[in-house]
Amino acid sequence: MSTLLEVSGVSVSFDGFRAINNLSFQIGDAEMRAVIGPNGAGKTTFMDIITGKTRPDEGRVLWGEKSASLLAMSESKIAQQGVGRKFQRPTVFEDQSVADNLMLALKKNRSPLAVLFFKPSAEDHERVESLAAEIGLAPALSRKAGELSHGQKQWLEIGMLLAQEPRLLLVDEPAAGMTPAEREQTTDILVEAAKTRAVVVVEHDMEFVRRLNCKVTVLHEGSVLAEGSIDHVTSDEKVIEVYLGR
Ligand code: ADP
Ligand code: MG
What we know:
Blueprint: E1 3-14, E2 17-28, E3 32-36, H1 43-50, E4 58-63, E5 68-69, H2 75-80, E6 83-86, H3 98-107, H4 112-116, H5 122-134, H6 150-162, E7 168-172, H7 180-193, E8 198-202, H8 206-212, E9 215-220, E10 223-228, H9 230-234, H10 237-244
């Protein structure tokens, strides 16, 4: 598996406080990775650095076959490279149907002029249907997004990100506020998505992380404290001390 993203020696301080401290991290092309760690460990800041929202004081963030530096790119340029990010709060269009939300997300791949004269092709409709199936919303295609449950809205937003065909999908605490059944379906959706792209999931829920069945990176005070299987990291003394034992 070739490396898609390589973060090395990255540090960032806010008013003298080192939120990210000499952090290094790599992820491969079609890899699922869970990132865990106590509150304030730097998980969200780490995602902010990858997406260009926060600029590090030092270090490198390299992307793709050509090892292009993401640090030299604007947030929108980074998104164009194939970095998709899901925030905690869903931002779907509540008055539009599930199908229309997915169709709008497809449109974002087009030039402004093409969007202006956009008329969905048969292929676009097929793509919307297959995206809906991927996120378990095929039976809800014609429903208004505003009528969906919290969990379903989260899936719709994941579907809207998948419509952009990102090579790397960043997801921050997707299971928050979900029912156990919704959590389970969310793991299924993410595991499926990670078959064809890299997915980084920040999550607190250990059962959720266990079901992702992937390598886990533990962050603490802005650095990697441990990395490996869930059983490996949860039996690590340092991890138990700072995170699990609290
Ligand atoms: P996590 O997501 O792991 O809970 P964060 O990345 O949100 O942690 O935050 C890491 C640390 O950096 C925290 O102490 C937080 O208060 C601080 N921090 C994050 N963003 C900013 C900011 N824009 N300005 C000042 N401090 C920040
Ligand atoms: Mg956070």
